[in-house]
Fold this protein.
Amino acid sequence: MKTTGSGDRPPALDRSPSRLAFGLVVAGLALLLLAVAAFVGLGVQRQSHRRMQAAVLEFEDRGYEVVWGRGTLVIREPLTRPHVLAADRVSLQADAEANLAILAPTAEIRSRVRGDLDFRGQVLTIQPEGVVEGALDGDVQIIDLRGRIWGEIRARYQFLDETQAAPSEEP
């Protein structure tokens, strides 16, 4: 019967000091990379939050009423005065009887905006039942137009998808 000594171990089970040191160095580098990524991510998030706060103050100075939300902000009651809506996501499901500003990465309009809409974010979707009677201003990456915009599109955008847009019937 043959006994196995430490020299007969398969390489995967080799616990030599050099392999242990190498493993600790790799684990330390991985932790350092995670810490740097988290620090950079927090910095970007803080900068984005500061920009949003500055934009909210801009609209507030112009007489807009401010509504902050966490997560998805759903507006189900009519807005009768100018408002600025700031959240992670905004869903307008009630009419806005005045100018409206939305500061959010994504937003959808499922109702009528009887004034100008200023959107600052990534994706603005105007659903088939959505109508913006005034102009569309702001900065947006993608405008997904399934509803209608009666005014001018003055917003800076990268892509306008109007393949499913409703016919533009003005009152």
Residues 18-60 form one domain. The longest helix spans residues 17-61. Helices lie at 17-61. The first strand starts at residue 65 and ends at 68.
